[in-house]
Amino acid sequence: MLTKQELLDPLARVRTDEVVITSMGVVRPWGRLSDSDLDFASADSAMGHTADLALGVAMAQPSRRVICLNGDGGMLMSLGTLATIVESGVDNLILFVIVNRTYEITGNQPVPGAMALDFAAMARAAGFAKVHHFDEADAYESALDGILHDKLKGPTFVSVSVAPESEGPISRSASEDARYLQTSLYDWSRRFKKALIESS
């Protein structure tokens, strides 16, 4: 099992111009490592739609890789999105599911069925051809660059076992460390859209 730091530090080191869309328990930790206008915190609406948003961005920006850092609780709420992603035919989406078995930012309540769920198997069943699972930091870090630059067709699915921590509820205010949380969702969405257009 990895820590969040072991998950995010290597990704921040190899990330170049990819869009990174975060959800729930990784929103703050990613914002401490990255200060890019191409980061987007999907933590303001009902849970379960982060992968949908990432798919939309990937379809709108087919020449750019989109990395989605989704939680297992959110993924469980919208498993149909796995089939939708495959059916879309996108080649530029890398969907991470961070398996910590809890709804972390609302108090670490257990995700239903968490001990039995196999998200990698679900992704394969939905039609993902490129599926990875990691529960050791060294294996994950060694494989990461290859995963990000894989030229094979189709979207990529990565599940990672991560120890739960204690991130509390997320706000959008000056009290947040992450720049993408220091402004309203409306204002950051405009900044994000501008960055996508200017860097296309």
Describe this protein's structure.
- 38% of the residues lie in helices and 18% in strands.
- Helix 2 links the parallel strand 1 and strand 2 (39-41).
- Helix 1 packs parallel to helix 7 and helix 3 (50-60) runs parallel beside helix 5.
- By secondary structure, it is α/β, with parallel strands linked by helices.
CATH architecture: 3-Layer(aba) Sandwich
CATH class, named Alpha Beta
Report the radius of gyration as a whole number of Å. 16 Å
How would you state the average pLDDT, rounded? 89
Distance between the termini: 37 Å
Number of helices: 8
Q: What fraction, in percent, of the residue positions are helical? A: 25-40%
Please sum up the structure shown.
The chain has 200 residues and is an alpha/beta fold. 38% of the residues lie in helices and 18% in strands. The strands form 2 sheets. It has a 6-stranded parallel β-sheet, sandwiched between helices.
